[in-house]
Amino acid sequence: MNKIAFITGGTRGIGKQIAITLAKNGYDIAVNYRTENEALINTKKEIEEEKVQCLAVQGDVSNFEDCERMIKEIINKFEKIDVLVNNAGITKDMLLMRMKKEDFQEVIDINLVGTFNVTKNVIQYMMKARSGRIINLSSIVGIAGNAGQTNYSASKAGIIGFTKSLAKEVASRNILVNAIAPGFIETDMTNILKDEVKEEIAKSIPLKRMGKVEDVANLVKFLSSEESSYITGQVINVDGGMVM
Ligand code: NAD
Q1: Closest-CA residue to 112 (of 148, 173, 160, 75)
Q2: Which of 54, 162, 166, 181 has the most crowded Cβ, counting Cβ within 10 A?
């Protein structure tokens, strides 16, 4: 029986690559999407080309009832979830002076409360199975801060606290919980930056390039595998050396 991985926000960017990398390694995949579109259809096709099963579940991670329903759909089909990747996330950047209360709230609701909503509904099944891996997407901005991102960095720092606390709660059940802190990874999220800004950022990175989605997905693969069975409660940077 294949292992089952559930990836939130998995139809583009880092989440899509995580889904494909795990599919290539023989996992059946449950992938969450918010709205049905071409990206979803392509992602599903690419996953199924790896000769594994793919279940797409629609829902907004900031909505608790959506998360409850999505997890039930996954359990109905696969009967278990071995790996949960809390990847869905957004930015709404603005200096605090001009940031709207709604934009602070929405980023916290999707990035941080969304991570709670999904994990809360998954954990009971991992507890019963006495095994599981939870991998949360944080950011180096949650560690080092960044002007214009008080909302985003607060949400990503919150994810680090959530990860460490949960790791302590569930270690005795053989459930390992870790966070990944990417630096600048080339995706739609960072494509909103102007080319000059991206070049400047690349120059400031010790490894002199932006990260690729594969750089993050390969770490997820490792954190899902038996090779990482003595690692929990950690935050691992994938940032080309930006934050040391
Ligand atoms: P992206 O914008 O390309 O993809 C994010 C995905 O999340 C999309 O599929 C989107 O539909 C989904 N999503 C957003 N809100 C959702 C909601 N409410 N419910 C369900 N799905 C929702 O972003 P990405 O660059 O691939 O980032 C993935 C994760 O990695 C995010 O958590 C992000 O904060 C984190 N991250 C990215 C970078 C980077 O440089 N790209 C750096 C650090 C951390």
Answers
A1: 160
A2: 181
Spatial CA neighbour of 210 closest among 227, 225, 190, 224? 190
Q: Quick one: fold of 4-238?
A: Rossmann fold (3.40.50)
Size (the chain), residues: 244
Catalytic residue among 33, 125, 152, 230: 152
Pocket test for ligand 1, best of 189, 201, 239 (most atoms within 8 A of CB): 189
Q: Tell whether ligand 1 has an atom less than 6 A from the beta carbon of residue 122.
A: no
Which residue is it, tokens 């739609």?
A: 188
Q: Whose CA is nearest to atom 6 of ligand 1?
A: 9
Regarding the beta carbon of 88 and ligand 1, being less than 6 Å apart is answered: yes
Instruction: Kindly state if the Cβ of 14 falls inside 6 Å of ligand 1.
Output: yes
Please give the chain's pLDDT, 244 residues, in tens: 999 999 999 999 999 999 999 999 999 999 999 998 999 999 999 999 999 999 999 999 999 999 999 999 999 999 999 999 999 999 999 999 999 999 999 999 999 999 999 999 999 999 999 999 999 999 999 999 999 999 999 999 999 999 999 999 999 999 999 999 999 999 998 888 899 999 999 999 999 999 999 999 999 999 999 999 999 999 999 999 999 9
In the annotation, is 33 catalytic?
no
Domain residue limits, the chain: 4-238
Q: What is the pTM of this model?
A: 0.98
Residue 148 burial (C-beta neighbours within 10 Å; 0-12, 13-18, 19+):
middle
